[in-house]
Amino acid sequence: MIAAPEIPTDFTLLQESETHFSSDTDFEDIEGKNQKQGKGKTCKKGKKGPAEKGKSGNGGGKPGGPNRMNGHHQQNGVENMMLFEVVKMGKSAMQSVVDDWIESYKHDRDIALLDLINFFIQCSGCKGVVTAEMFRHMQNSEIIRKMTEEFDEDSGDYPLTMAGPQWKKFKSSFCEFIGVLVRQCQYSIIYDEYMMDTVISLLTGLSDSQVRAFRHTSTLAAMKLMTALVNVALNLSINMDNTQRQYEAERNKIIGKRANDRLELLLQKRKELQENQDEIENMMNAIFKGVFVHRYRDAIAEIRAICIEEIGIWMKMYSDAFLNDSYLKYVGWTMHDKQGEVRLKCLTALQGLYYNKELNSKLELFTSRFKDRIVSMTLDKEYDVAVQAIKLLTLVLQSSEEVLTAEDCENVYHLVYSAHRPVAVAAGEFLYKKLFSRRDAEDDGMLKRRGRQSPNANLVKTLVFFFLESELHEHAAYLVDSMWDCATDLLKDWECMNSLLLEEPLNGEEPLTDRQESALIEIMLCTIRQAAECHPPVGRGTGKRVLTAKEKKTQLDDRTKITELFAVALPQLLAKYSVDAEKVTNLLQLPQYFDLEIYTTGRLEKHLDALLRQIRDIVEKHTDTDVLEACSKTYHALCNEEFTIFNRVDIARSQLIDELSDKFNRLLEDFLQEGEEPDEDDAYQVLSTLKRITAFHNAHDLSRWDLFGCNYKLLKTGIENGDMPEQIVIHALQCTHYVILWQLAKVTESSSTKEDLLRLKKQMRVFCQICQHYLTNVNTAVKEQAFTILCDVLMIFSHQIMTGGRDMLEPLVYTPDSSLQSELLSFILDHVFIDQDDDNNSADGQQDDEASKIEALHKRRNLLAAFCKLIVYTVVEMNTAADIFKQYMKYYNDYGDIIKETMSKTRQIDKIQCAKTLILSLQQLFNEMIQENGYNFDRSSPTFSGIKELARRFALTFGLDQLKTREAIAMLHKDGIEFAFKEPNPQGESHPPLNLAFLDILSEFSSKLLRQDKRTVYVYLEKFMTFQMSLRREDVWLPLMSYRNSLLAGGDDDTMSVISGISSRGSTVRNKKTKPATGKRKVPEAEESSSSDSMWLNREQSMHTPVMMQTPQLTSTIMREPKRLRPDENYMGVYPMQPEHHQPPLDYKQQEEAARQQQERAAMNYVKLRSNLQHAIRRGTSLMEDDEEPIVEDVMMSSEGRIEDLNEGMDFDTMDIDLPPSKNRRERTELKPDFFDPASIMDESVG
């Protein structure tokens, strides 16, 4: 074992003659050793003994010397700033700051070191200053303890944790200062056995402190010091190698030409370099074992992250000494850390190592042991960690493909479909490196070939195969986006993709299957969309961003390339796949991304005509809604008045619509005139034509074809006869809806006449009546379509239509009457709030698998959202929401988010009305329970408990700000009390009101009342109570008792919050410095609430609330400890129990006197409790943290629960830092013998 460095500390001299060790982190000089001439190393380089310390050049025992005052340098009478202030400002060049300090050190090293010690103390946020007297006579532990007492008790912040650009810069300046200090001292001062020993001693002691600020700052300083020393050691190693080569070259010369003097100089130089390297090696050992092995598992994540980041730098910078399993194991273990930032540092440290392929041989054992952990981290809950894990695996893959198994790669492959774009992009790069970056030798000769024979052809096929094997055929856009950055050339090779679709396969080449062709077309569409729009698909990213000039140029170039290629190829592709609905739907989307000007400039009009002919043929061949809508959108994209091709496309579109309209009118006339039920062929013809017209009416204004009349006839006939095919009704409703919307757009955009408004109003009202009729249709699909469209129409033609200065549209405003509102609500209750198994109609006979259930749930959620939108925008009465809100708990998993959002929006509109709606929903549930079970129900039954739980959840939605919801909560209690006493018991006042149990539910909202409002509500409650009620103690009266309790309780809230605050022990200084909350009560409660009580009484009157004269408070339970009260005692204080009927009632004055005495006793108890709590808080507040040596399991976690399994086969003994082979020039005996004992480091505890 390499000897530890000597760290004598004149910093901790002892005056006694015996040996004494004060703590594990003190580096002490033992008296007598340094005073023996020629024995120790202290005198070897002229190091001062303890008697000389502080006297060098400064005269007699003045602590600071003549050039120092109050810890500050003085030059020519001008006081300079201390090191901390200079580094904090960051304005001076760090080189000059360090040079000034070195000059000071050369002049008087004790004063300079004292400056450096105070620099570290101040950087920790401590206001204390180490004086020269303390420096000479106090031990490390005593100085640190003294500095701990100097911390600011009002704040737990310190420079490394403070926010703001100044402190962020301070951290970098702090680190830079340490690096520059070592660099400037590397040739002499660091070898004087004084400066480095003192600094290492200080930092090691501080890093062992229980004060987080000391521990954090000193650990950062020690790690940066270590990094600087590693750099020095590396330079020494290089110099030694050079010197050795020069020595060998000189020695190998023939004797006549050999220079013995040069040999001797080289030998002396090598010896000196070896001694220096031994010194550095021992210093690094001291820091590594004294700081790193303890702090890399510190309780604070930032400290652990510092250690891991720096050890990664050491291994990368000086791989010969540090890149071995003895140091890699620390990174491997810490990859199981609980905190994401620490795991992230592990991965970034490893990336720096795997990036250098020359180091791969030294990482083989580590890779085999921790590869599984790295693979599992690709699914880390912290996205940043997952991204770096994937990038690390990409580097591992590049270093050796054999390391990762097929299963490992598949775990990364599926992440290309992740919604988080950085994760997906990293996975896309991994996929590209694995499957697409390899090129065969024969491909080199194909580089100049294009199309099907290009080298990308096989790669495109590979991409298609991967897409199909992933079985996520609706997510091609996400796959393309994931690979867009790393495989742009491949994904933009549209010529190759087009050739694979149109050209015949070469000899011996296997053609693409129908499924592969569909996948290729979908991928090709996604690449074209990505190139033309330059933003990721929906769900990735925050939306469209502003493109740079370079990106805009690339976008224009890509659109030009796309148009030139597919303007010619698209008609051919449509002709080839015209009967395949899926392929045609995707291909028809391509013109949306064309540069239409190229049709004219490139003289491609004949290809445009061919495209229009193909689209027309497709419209005639297909009735699939997706295909027809794609054709409609293509016409819409081509019908752009800005381009010269508009007239050509508009004529083709008009001809097509004319034919469809004439055909529909002709078919409809025959269809409706038939006396008997129409046959299926006629119905099919009408439906197919109606589908085509509806699809085009979605994107095009077809008002001049007057489609309202024919659709109205169709729908009216369906209502009268009741035998209209459901699909015809559904599409007729949709087409009529488009007619209404286009009419509205026309009257909104242009100056419309009164006749236009009246005609639209009439059509809209008639259409709403038709939809209302179809709400009672026997077919579920028809009812759902009518409901959805009706909600949309009511929303569009509500009072919102006049916003934005459109008052001329006021005649169009339509408010649904109560019958329509009831029908809409009934539809929701019958078709949305149902069990999954009851929804048989939604599957339409299909297999009731998971997919159909999800689709049915999605449809029901849309129906509920449509109705809730009407509530939120006050189209329907807010109280209709009561039937929705009462389903909150029962259908929480399916609709909880929608209902909760509706509550939030309605509360923003009208807090009081929302509260009344909430209490109404609870009353409805209560009445339903009464109807089912009668008034003698069990209050412990699941039904009643469910209503209470719903009330509790309602109360939580009001949030923490009681002032904002004050009036709403008060109104809620008012309505609840009135409901509870609404139905008197027919058996007389000796029996409780029929709804009294509702008070048990109402008590869930009592915690949301302010203290003074509780009194007001209590007064209002007493208005409904008789004197006999207050005396009842039977179980049937418990709801009244508990509700009164909830209104009277609350005075203990502040006290209990203080108690809980003391019991919860924080982990940071900041938490422990929190001010106790007991100081908030400074005003007696009667005085505090007198004005607010009167205010609330006036408010109650303004709300027409019954008011009774405020009766004197007989006693108070506010200050009592809850655990000492029984319900009987609680109520005995407020309403004393009457004796038997033959005894007269108690005198009122006696009650008042007893109440006053009891209140005084409660107040005295509270004062004592406050005093004790404040004392406990002061005594408990501490800067110290018990995280000195945390258990490793608290910091790290293992996927198998046992870390030893991860490290099997590794060397668990902590090894010394072993630089290139050398022999120590001397043994160190000054350090405590057990400081580097392997038992004191982590390895034993882990194993």
TrEMBL record:
The keyword Cell division applies. GO terms for cellular component: chromatin; chromosome, centromeric region; cohesin complex; nucleus. InterPro entries: ARM-type_fold (IPR016024), Cohesin_Scc3/SA (IPR039662), HEAT_SCC3-SA (IPR056396), SCD (IPR020839), STAG (IPR013721). Keywords: Cell cycle, Cell division, Chromosome, Chromosome partition, Coiled coil, Nucleus. Residues 36-48, 1070-1081 have a biased composition (Basic residues). Part of the cohesin complex which is composed of a heterodimer between a SMC1 protein (SMC1A or SMC1B) and SMC3, which are attached via their hinge domain, and RAD21 which link them at their heads, and one STAG protein. Component of cohesin complex, a complex required for the cohesion of sister chromatids after DNA replication. The cohesin complex apparently forms a large proteinaceous ring within which sister chromatids can be trapped. At anaphase, the complex is cleaved and dissociates from chromatin, allowing sister chromatids to segregate. Belongs to the SCC3 family. This is Cohesin subunit SA.
